[in-house]
Design a protein that fits this description.
single chain; alpha/beta; Rossmann fold; 7 strands; 28% helix; 27% strand
């Protein structure tokens, strides 16, 4: 089974996050939130008593995220402008139930910093949901040499202190994995 959006091309965050175990009242951080697809889906899942931190280095994606949140009637999404390759995200230690890393690791030069920050903000037993481009020739997407294979990701995550939990069915272009702190 693949979780693809109605246009049958890409993953649908509203289907991926429940499968990853994101639940009501949870605290979720989306590092590299982009235009807010995952934060909005997470905001709907965690409900009004949950919290979603949408973190990005650029203002435009944060503004798009807040616009999408308002459009969806969500008041539990908070944007943070921060470079995830640098330490010091203003999220307290061990406060998050989940961290979403969707399409950010293949872009980063300092991937280990992102993983350390994910580890820092996660509660014990917290989950990291990682969605990345498959490392194979596809009709579009980032250059293949910048992509991270599932095996490479597994090695990185183990070195950062995480344990593999599960694979989430994904679309033709991506894979999705869950790791536990």
């Amino acid at each position: 089974m693949q979780f693809i959006s109605k246009n049958k091309r890409f993953l649908d965050p509203s289907e991926i996050l429940p499968y990853a175990g994101i639940q009501k009242d949870a605290v979720v951080a989306d590092f590299g939130c982009g235009n807010g697809f995952y934060p909005v889906a997470a905001g709907q899942l965690v409900g009004e008593n949950g919290t979603v931190y949408a973190v990005d280095i650029q203002n435009e994606p944060l503004e798009a995220t807040m616009s999408a949140a308002r459009h969806s009637g969500l008041k539990n999404i908070y944007t943070i402008r921060h470079d995830m390759e640098q330490p010091g995200t203003p999220i307290k230690d061990q406060t998050c139930d989940a961290v979403v890393l969707s399409g950010i690791l293949h872009l980063a030069h300092l991937q280990n910093n992102i993983l350390r920050e994910s580890y820092r903000v996660l509660k014990s037993g917290g989950k990291v949901v990682i969605i990345e481009w498959k490392k194979e020739r596809l009709p579009f997407g980032p250059k293949i040499d910048t992509r991270i294979s599932e095996q490479e990701l597994g090695t990185m995550m183990t070195a950062a202190g995480f344990t593999f939990k599960s694979e989430i069915p994904a679309d033709y272009f991506h894979y999705a994995l869950v790791f536990i702190k």
